[in-house]
């Protein structure tokens, strides 16, 4: 089953950093997932978060307001 991963953020350095970490973890571990970057503020607001970046996995907000480590992301996706 493919995971639907969304990174919510307006394009700040922390958001960019989260995108690259998530993409790296997905690629290195052959995880079946689609990674989408969401920059539209109206779309981000639908998730009811106040701080970005945020990581959404299968429509569930898992991390918000910080950049997680690669290990933390891997643990979330497995």
From TrEMBL:
<feature type="active site" description="Nucleophile">
    <location>
        <position position="15"/>
    </location>
</feature>
<dbReference type="InterPro" id="IPR012336">
    <property type="entry name" value="Thioredoxin-like_fold"/>
</dbReference>
<feature type="active site" description="Nucleophile">
    <location>
        <position position="12"/>
    </location>
</feature>
<keyword id="KW-0676">Redox-active center</keyword>
<keyword id="KW-1015">Disulfide bond</keyword>
<feature type="domain" description="Thioredoxin-like fold">
    <location>
        <begin position="4"/>
        <end position="77"/>
    </location>
</feature>
<dbReference type="InterPro" id="IPR036249">
    <property type="entry name" value="Thioredoxin-like_sf"/>
</dbReference>
<protein>
    <submittedName>
        <fullName>Thioredoxin family protein</fullName>
    </submittedName>
</protein>
<dbReference type="Pfam" id="PF13192">
    <property type="entry name" value="Thioredoxin_3"/>
</dbReference>
<feature type="disulfide bond" description="Redox-active">
    <location>
        <begin position="12"/>
        <end position="15"/>
    </location>
</feature>
<dbReference type="InterPro" id="IPR005243">
    <property type="entry name" value="THIRX-like_proc"/>
</dbReference>
């Amino acid at each position: 089953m493919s995971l639907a991963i969304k990174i919510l953020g307006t394009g700040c350095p922390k958001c960019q950093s989260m995108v690259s970490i998530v993409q790296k973890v997905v690629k290195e571990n052959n995880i079946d997932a689609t990674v989408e970057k969401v920059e539209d503020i109206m779309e981000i607001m639908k998730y009811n978060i106040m701080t970005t970046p945020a990581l959404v996995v299968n429509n569930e907000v898992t991390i918000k307001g910080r950049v997680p480590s690669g290990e933390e992301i891997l643990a979330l996706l497995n």
